[in-house]
Write a structure and sequence with these properties.
Blueprint: E1 2-10, H1 16-32, E2 36-52, E3 55-67, H2 69-81, E4 85-92
Antiparallel strand pairs: 1-3, 1-4, 2-3
Helix pairs in contact: 1-2
């Protein structure tokens, strides 16, 4: 398994339960694809550089995990179609 980090931006209109549901959704996908979630860093609400879906702010989060190509592909697929996620980016950490 390789180390990855994923930055994602959530809608600022999500209630706290929605934020927790989003975090657990990411953790479930990583676990289902035999990956290991290391930790979540909550960066909080920040102003966006440009509007995304009519929002000027977003809730930034960073997840560190170990996984396979299957983990990355499944996360990418699911987060693209899930409401509440404005943007996401997954990068492999340097060795």
């Amino acid at each position: 398994m390789r180390p990855y980090e994923m930055m994602f931006i959530l809608s600022p209109e999500l209630p706290s339960e929605g934020v927790e549901a989003a975090k657990s959704r990411v953790a479930d996908i990583i676990a289902q694809t035999k990956g290991e979630l290391e930790d979540f860093e909550v960066w909080g609400r920040r102003r966006l550089a440009y509007e995304i879906k009519d929002f000027r702010e977003g809730l930034y989060m960073l997840a560190h995990f170990k996984g396979t190509t299957e983990s990355v592909n499944e996360l990418d697929r699911v987060l693209k179609i899930t409401d509440g996620f404005l943007r996401h980016m997954i990068v492999r950490k340097g060795e």
